[in-house]
Backbone:
């Protein structure tokens, strides 16, 4: 039987670990493909799957969304997350959207044997 961590998709694992580190959406892109050169290859193709993972974890109550250090209610959080410009533009994200784990998210994270297993997604 898989642990709660293993039951998450690779994208959800990346997002939950990022939330535990108070990651910005742009940070998630870097966590998903560490060492990528965004001048050579745009991370835009990774946004939809990571966006879906954030939405999933937000709805499950595992992460919270902050804008300017203010926790956002669910509908506002969903609006921020689903705006691709808050993830990536050539000039940087439109808004600095930050994630944080919830106690429920932390409970899932502590079941991980390998918190970086999601990096084997390629």
Residues:
């Amino acid at each position: 039987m898989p642990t709660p961590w293993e039951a998450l998709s690779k994208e959800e694992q990346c997002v939950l670990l990022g939330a535990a580190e108070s990651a910005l959406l742009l940070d998630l892109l870097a966590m998903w493909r560490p060492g990528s050169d965004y001048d050579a290859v745009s991370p835009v193709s990774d946004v939809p799957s990571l966006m879906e993972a954030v939405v999933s974890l937000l709805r499950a109550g595992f992460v919270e969304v902050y804008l300017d250090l203010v926790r956002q209610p669910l509908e506002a959080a969903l609006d921020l997350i689903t705006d691709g410009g808050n993830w990536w533009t050539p000039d940087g994200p439109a808004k600095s959207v930050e994630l944080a784990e919830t106690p429920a998210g932390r409970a899932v994270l502590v079941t991980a044997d390998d918190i970086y297993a999601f990096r084997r997604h390629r």
